[in-house]
Amino acid sequence: MNQQQLDKLRQSATASLMSNAKWRKLFEAAARMQPQLGGVQWQLLKNKQPTVAELAVADCLLDDNQRFDDCGPFPCVELRDIDWIFIPHQFTDPHSDPKRPLPPKHNDVAGFIALLAHSGQFPVQRNEHGATITGYVW
Question: Other C-beta atoms within 10 Å of 95: how many?
Fold first, then answer.
């Protein structure tokens, strides 16, 4: 998807719920979480399927706070291209494989949401599987 198509897609949203400043606050809160959150799914506007990546990515933002630098999970992607982020209560251990299955790991989703509440109001939807931070309403 090229930039013009992304712009058109963003303009077709009913509402944009997250600013660059809010995304940065979310990433900074994630960096303070111990243990780090894992199994986090990111849905970018240009991708058909979510991508699993870490959430503590505040160090990967450029000084303009509008996009990631050329390192990190999404090189050169703008923050406004994030559709949603899902933080699961439970996720597969990244070191697990069919020959050596490991027990699932757990995220402190409630703790993260409480930490996030100290930084402002965020569009968080919770369910029995975890929490979704929504960037756009379609």
Answer: 8
21-65 per-position pLDDT tens digit: 999 999 999 999 999 999 999 999 999 999 999 999 989 988 888
Shortest CA distance to 77 belongs to which of 37, 46, 117?
46
Q: Which of 49, 45, 50, 66 is nearest to 1 (CA)?
A: 45
Q: Note whether 82 and 18 are within 8 A (CB).
A: yes
Terminal alpha carbon distance of the chain: 18
In this structure, are strands 90-91 and 136-137 parallel, antiparallel, or unpaired? unpaired
Q: Tokens 């490991």 appear where? A: 102
Q: Residue 41's beta-bridge partner residues?
A: 52, 86
The model carries a pTM of 0.94
How many residues in total does the chain contain? 138
